[in-house]
Amino acid sequence: MTGEPAFFEIGVEDPEQGRAFYGALFGWTFEPGPVGGGFAIGTPGLPGGMHGGDPGAGPYLFFRVDDLDTALDRVRELGGTVEEADVEGDEDSVRTFGRFRLCRDDQGSRFGLHQPPSAS
To answer: Measuring CA to CA, which residue among 112, 94, 114 is closest to residue 103?
Structure first.
């Protein structure tokens, strides 16, 4: 396991409106994302994503792991929980963006785990 920040995700009600706001604020670039209606965000540093239908959500920080399944087992062993919702998208998305899963620590705070795509 590595643990460095690898990716961030912003939840908004309307992704187009979010793109206009954050693009104007920070100069970020946006490309269609892996899951319907969202965006992959290009920044000078950490890559990000934006999804819709999530008004008032705080940003999610995803930490890099080498093996997502092993890391998810460890979260559970330590008293945390793994959200069952699949945030990975289809096979093409996994090849391009990697695998993601939202979790909660043993006190209920949300965070994410990200396994980057395989170098093939």
So the answer is: 112
